[in-house]
Amino acid sequence: METQLNTSHRKIIHIDMDAFYASVEQRDNPDxxxxxxxxxxxxxxxGGVVATxxxxxxxxxxxxxxxxxxxxxxxPQAIFVRxxxxxxxxxxxxxxxxxSRYTDLIEPLSLDEAYLDVTTxxxxxxxxxxxxxxxxxxxxNELNLTASAGVSINKFVAKIASDMNKPDGLKFxxxxxxxxxxxxxxxxxxxxxxKVTAQKMKKMGLHTGADLKKLSxxxxxxxxxxxxxxxxxxxxxxxxREVQPHRETKSMGAEDTFAYxxxxxxxMNAELDKIAVTVANRLEKYELKGRTITLKVKYSDFKQIxxxxxxxxxxxxxxxxxxxxxxLMAVSFAEGQRVRLLGISLSNFNEVxxxxxxxKDTGQLLLF
Length: 368
Known about the structure:
Layout: E1 12-17, H1 20-28, E2 37-40, E3 50-53, H2 55-58, H3 68-74, E4 79-81, H4 85-100, E5 106-110, E6 113-117, H5 128-143, E7 147-152, H6 155-162, E8 170-172, H7 178-184, H8 195-203, H9 209-212, H10 217-224, H11 226-234, E9 247-248, E10 251-262, H12 265-285, E11 290-299, E12 304-315, H13 318-332, E13 339-349, E14 355-356
Parallel strand pairs: 2-4, 7-8
Antiparallel strand pairs: 1-6, 1-7, 2-3, 5-6, 9-14, 10-13, 11-12, 11-13
C-alpha cells in the first residue's frame, strides 16, 4: 500500500548561503573579488583542510574538506585565506535576525544554513515563495551577500531544492510535484546516502528514487537498516520531521586543529588542558554535566580515533575533564605518531531531557 502525502502541508524554507566564508572574504576585500578564494588551512608544510571555496575556485574542482595541498594542485592560482570566524558569526547573527522577522520556528544547521517553518508567518504574508524572496533580498541589501532558497512541504525536499539553482537561486517544489521530483532524484542525493551506500544501491540496480520505490519497506529495512525505512517514506514525499528551534543536546565539546603536528605527549597534554577549559566553560554556561568523557584524536594521515571513559555520576569539573582526557591520551599514545587535531566532549547528560536554545554568539547549539 502506497504511503499518501499529508493533505495538510507545512510551508518549509531551507536557506543556504552561497560559498559563505569565501563570499564574506570577497565582500570585505575588493582584491579577492572575481578570484579563486580558498578559506581554510594553508597548503604550506603539512597543510590544512579547505573550509569552503569561492565559485571561481570550485570551477577547478576545489571542494570543502579537501586537503589544502590538493586544492593548490587543482587551482595553482588560488588565494588561500585563514578563516575569520568572528566575522562569520557576526554575519550569521544578522541573517538570523532577518529570519526572525518572519517566523520564530528557525532550526539552524550551521552558521550559513537553516530551516524555517512559515506555515504561519508573523507578517501574514501567506506565501512561502514570497517570504523566501524577501529574505534573499534582505540578505542582499543589508549584507551584500547572496543566499539560495528551497521551498517545499517538508525539510528533506526543501534542502535539496535550495541546492538546485545555486548561486542566488530559488526553487519551489509544490505538493503535487514532490513524488515525481523524488522519482528522478539520483540516490546519492538522498539524505544519509554516502558513497558506500550509493555504491551498494547501484550494484543492486537502484539508481534513482523511482528504483527505490520498487522495494517494499521491509526490503528497504533488510538492505539498509533503519535508514531504509526513512528512504521508503521520503521517496514518496513523506517527511514528518518538524523544524526544531530548540534541539536536544546530545553532546558538547571543543576541538582544535594545530598549525603543526604534535609529536610529544607533553605537547598534547598542554593542548588538552586548553581545550578542557573551553569545554568546562561551555558546560557551566548551559548548566550541564555528563557521565561520559570522549577524547578525539586525528593523526597527520587523517586517521581518526576516539576513546572514552564513563563515570557513575555526571561530571563537569575542569580538573576531571582535563585529567581524564590526558589519561586517555597517554593510553593511546605511541612514539612516532603525529597528531593534527585533538578534541574533548561530554555526553550522557542528566536523566532529565535537556533542551537548549542556540548559542547567542554562533546561533547554533554547541554540539561536538
